[in-house]
Structures are given as C-alpha cells and as structure tokens.
Amino acid sequence: MNASLASPAISPVPRLALVTGGIGGLGTEICRHLALAGRRVIAVDLGQRAERVNAFRHEVAAFGDAIGFESADVSDFDSCAELVARVEQAHGGIDILVNAAGITRDASLRKMEPRQWHELMRVNLDGVFNTCRQVIEGMSTRGFGRIVNLSSVNGQTGQFGQTNYAAAKAGVHAFGMALARESARKGVTVNTVSPGYCDTPMVAAVSAEIRQRIVEDIPVGRLGSPADIARAVAFLTADDAGYITGANLPVNGGYFMSF
Fold it and tell me: What is the number of helices (H) and of strands (E) in the chain?
C-alpha cells in the first residue's frame, strides 16, 4: 500500500484529555463526548464551586473512572503548572487540551472599569497561554497533541458591550494560528471552535425578548446545543485529524458566515 494512503496510527491506549471549564454547560458535554470517543478525561475548574462540582460528578457518574476532576485556576500560571504536574504524575502525559474556560464582564467601553477588562483577559486569554504553555513541550516531545481553544462568534463579529470579550476571543484564534505554525512538524495540531449562541446558563440569563431576537437572526432557527459544540471538539481532537491545524471551525447555525 502507498504510504500516503495508509491509515494514521491510532493509539492502543486511551489518550488523556484535559478540559478547562470542564464543569460548565459546554465543558461537561465536551467531557462526555471525549469519553465516548475513548479518551480518559480530566475536567478542570475552580474547586471552591463545591455544589457545582458535586453536580458534575453526578452528571458523569455513568462514565466511571473515564472522567475525573481536578481543581485549578486557569488565570494563574503557577496553578496551571501544578495542575499539569499533578495530572501527569497520576495519569501520564497529556495528549489533548481543550480550553473551554471563560467568563463575561459586559459593559460598554464608556462604562467599563479596568477591573472588568483585566479579570476577563486573565481567564479568557491568559488562561489559554497558561495551559498551552504547560503541555506543548510534552506533546511535541511525544510527537502527538491535539489542542482546541474555544473562541466565540462574537470574536468574529463584535458585540455591543463586549469590547473585552470580543478582543479576548479574537485573540484566542490568533494565538492558536501562531502556535499551530510552531507545532505542526511535531505532530501537534492547534485549532479553534467558535460557538454561536447556545442553550447554556450564560445565554439563559439573557432576557426572553433578547433571546427571541437572537433566534430570529440564526438561519437554522434555534439556539445551539452543547452537543453541537462537543461534536466539533471531538472531531478536531481525533487521532486521525492530523491534517487540520490553525483552523477556526464556526458552530453557529449560520449566524455568521465567512469565506
């Protein structure tokens, strides 16, 4: 058989995946989809959210040891370094990193306080650096890695009251493109998934009137589901997805289309 037509090597042991924001609306579903794809998954989030952590453990109990939880603050570089060291000591090298952690601090720029800008940037953009910086060396050395960073449709279109959020989410993809160039020859892919408006607690907090206007502007006529996003992440983190890197996969129901 022509070597170029041969199937890519598939790992005989479960790949280890780290999912930040792993107990959120999107994060939990991403953990489920990765586990269903045969991955060993570690969800990462703030440990002080005890009620939510317990709810998460209940939601994924059917997966047994395939999904675990570790506490870390993605906005803190040292916390991420300790997390990765702890996980690798217990489970081995991290093969897959999904950065789904994110917050909003909405305000028009005229009213935005420096605290709102910096708090968001520390989680939404610094968090991507903090985690990727910890895993990229090991992935490169082992010759395999899949990194998926979650951006947002609002990083592509902008949104009123979200100069901080839009800037951070646009930066997430630019970061990913640059890292993709650095790591492509090492067997490491870096891609972005940009969700549109999804049926999550963050969107549920918006007034019913505004949600209705949003749905009216979505060509497919509905909000996205967490599963819509999780399927895209599972696709980009597959062992045989090695020829896709530096890409941004919009999952927004046609809300924003570009060439």
Answer: 10, 7
Whether 209 is in a domain gets the answer no
The CATH number that applies at residue 122 is: 3.40.50.720
Say if CB 254 and CB 199 are below 8 A apart. no
Cα–Cα distance measured from residue 103 to residue 227, given in angstroms and rounded to the nearest whole number: 20
Whether 165 sits among the annotated catalytic residues: the reply is yes
One of 165, 197, 243, 255 is an active-site residue; which one?
165
For residue 172, what are the domain limits?
A: 9-198+226-245
Condensed to tens digits (0 to 9), the pLDDT of residues 222-234 reads 999 999 999 999 9
The residues near 99 (Cβ < 8 Å, ≥ 6 apart) are: 20, 21, 74, 127, 128, 131, 132, 147, 148, 149, 150, 172
| Per-residue model confidence as pLDDT tens digits over 76-100 | 999 999 999 999 999 999 999 999 9
Q: How many independent structural domains does the chain possess? A: 1
Q: pLDDT band for position 163 (50/70/90)?
A: very high
Q: Are 52 and 21 a contacting pair, CB within 8 Å?
A: no
In a domain, 221, yes or no: no
Q: Supply the DSSP string of 141-170, one letter for each residue.
A: HHT-EEEEEE--THHHH--TT-HHHHHHHH
